[in-house]
Amino acid sequence: MKFRVERDVLAEAVAWAARSLPARPPVPVLAGLLLAADEGKLSLSGFDYEVSARVETEADVEEPGTVLVSGRLLADISRSLPNRPVEISTDGVRVIVVCGSSRFTLPTLPVDEYPALPQMPTVSGTVPGEAFAAAVAQVATAAGRDDTLPVLTGVRVEIEGDRVTLAATDRYRFAVRDLMWKPEQEGLSAVALVPAKTLLDTAKSLSAGDVVSIALAGSGKGEGLIGFEGAGRRTTTRLLEGEFPKFRALFPTEFNSVATVPTPAFVEAVKRVSLVAERNTPVRLSFEQGVLTLEAGSGDDAQATERVEADLEGDDISIAFNPAYLLDGLAAIDAAVAQLSFTTSTKPALLSGKHAPDAEADEAYKYLIMPVRLSG
Amino acid sequence: MRLVIARCSVDYAGRLTAHLPSAPRLILVKSDGSVAIHSDDRAYKPLNWMSPPCTLKEEDGRWTVENKAGEKLIITLEEVLLDSSHELGVDPGLIKDGVEAHLQELLADRMEVLGAGWKLIRREYPTAIGPVDILCRDDEGVTVAVEIKRRGEIDGVEQLTRYLELLNRDPLLAPVKGVFAAQQIKPQARVLAADRGIHCVVLDYDGLRGIEDDKLKLF
């Protein structure tokens, strides 16, 4: 095997494919990155039995071939090489990397012991890369991190015709985002539970592409797999199993009061006030006509208050939230104005975004947040 | 167990010296000979103490506790307010793997935690090399051996691997799958388990026990 490729192209491709390499490979070959050069194309693949990643780039291939080398080492090397064309070739059981005046000789791993990567399922539809990444980020923020509830560490993907719904929760908040996509076939209806962290990484890394193809396979047991492809990058991940909580009924539809607050001022105020909120203590919000008062800290501890201009329709309300969850939601709505809708101070509040104070609230993204009970 | 409440001052002479000025204190003399001096605060750790083996020499108004290294705890008693002895007998001790046993019991009662439709065959399923914590059937009727730990480490996976090897020799049970269930699972143990086709499950002890924190939740 022998090929030449630009340093930046190589470094980017290697870094991306090496993402899915396991931190503790149970078999040595899994620490490897599979390089395959053929007919002007170079492909790199990594796999850890859960997630597979494959990237294809143009390369000047002189002699086709396949080789398996330590992914971590190749990633470190390609990142540090001078900005010159890189030539990679095999010499017996070794791989030679030459770039400018630097030269590396790397041992190879046995290619025939490398497991076959899972087949990319048939494409179910496409979404714009950037919109998909933004939607996933909005939802994944609410996903659980507790391994005792594996179902909640995933993002639920519901496909219904030309609409995709993403949902995630950790029982304290629930984020749901609707977005439109182009299904390959009409009347497609499918659900999947994708590990949130993997989905977030994947969507982000594919955001540069115009379109991301989503491929969903096998609703049958044990073979659940979802694939994403865009801009020459292709990744598959195993799906989580389990019953995701039914969420539509959790979202209240009738409210006693609705507050609107300019998001930047709100975020700043929550950040400042929560400086004195010790671990597991809330920020308290009191909404009255025209003003929102934020408070944190109590008793002999440090305390803080701040007032922010706000509009309120309906009853005055005092409610307390975990500041981190509130800030996550305010960041996720990605809008100039935040709208909070309440029923009572012990019932979930609905956070949504508006691009202007008098605009309609964005229906596509909803962040339901559970208040914290105030003692005394 | 002898309890003495007395106004006393205490001097310790040994590797380090310490002096407690006169004050009312609780002195515990335990059946193993150990002596501990407590003030009226904190749940553990006496102000001063002498671990066994040691000897207590009682003189009028002055106790001397000495250990083999010649270190001395000298208690000068000014006024004894209480001196009472009680026979406590042998303590059953802290059952070390009490949580493990409880987890096993809880999980056996709630097999659905492992998966819908899973059924218990029996707890403590006997094998030639010791009992398997739980033997059950999954929703497809496949036999599953479950090893339960508080902390899931490599040796737990090894233990389960040995059971699985043995159980898989039994044509009536084979094929037997493995589930490694623990309150927390070390990354190394997870890798080893995955490599051996053993499924890992993290158990929520409080959840199984039905102890809910009082935080408000959506569901």
Number of helices of chain A: 6
Number of domains of chain A: 3
Mean pLDDT, all residues of chain B: 89
Briefly note the structural class of the backbone of chain B: alpha+beta
Q: Total strand count of chain A, please?
A: 27
Query: SSE order of chain B in H/E notation?
Result: EEEEEEEHEEEHEHEH
- Strand % of chain B is 35-45%
The side-by-side strand order for the widest beta sheet of chain A comes to 5-1-7-8-9-6-2-3-4-18-17-16-10-14
Low-confidence stretches of chain A: none
- The N- and C-terminal alpha carbons of chain B lie at a distance of 51 Å
- Biggest chain contact: A-B, 26 and 18 residues
Which percent range describes the beta-strand content of chain A? 35-45%
Distance between the termini of chain A: 73 Å
Q: Describe the main β-sheet of chain B briefly.
A: 7 strands, antiparallel
Shape designation of chain A: elongated
List the total number of helices of chain B: 4
Helix content of chain B: 10-25%
Number of strands of chain B: 12
Written description of the protein model:
The complex is a heterodimer of chains A (376) and B (219). With 376 residues, chain A is an alpha+beta fold. Chain A has 3 domains: 2-113, Roll (DNA Polymerase III, Chain A, domain 2); 123-248, Roll (DNA Polymerase III, Chain A, domain 2), CATH 3.10.150.10; 251-369, DNA Polymerase III, subunit A, domain 2 (DNA Polymerase III, Chain A, domain 2), CATH 3.10.150.10. Helix content of chain A is 18%, strand content 43%. In chain A, a hairpin with a 2-residue loop joins strand 8 (94-99) and strand 9 (102-109). The longest helix of chain A is centred in the N-terminal third of the chain and has 12 residues, at 7-18. The radius of gyration of chain A is 25 Å and the shape is elongated. Chain B has 219 residues and is α+β, with helices and mostly antiparallel strands. Chain B has 4 helices and 12 strands. Chain B has helices at residues 98-109, 154-167, 187-195, 205-209; strands at residues 2-13, 18-29, 35-38, 48-50, 54-59, 62-67, 72-85, 119-125, 132-137, 143-152, 176-185, 199-202. In chain B, the strands form 2 sheets. Chain B has a 7-stranded antiparallel sheet with strand order 4-3-2-1-7-6-5, with no helix packed on it. In chain B, a hairpin with a 5-residue loop joins strand 2 and strand 3. The longest helix of chain B has 14 residues, at 154-167. The interface between A and B is medium-sized, with 26 and 18 residues.
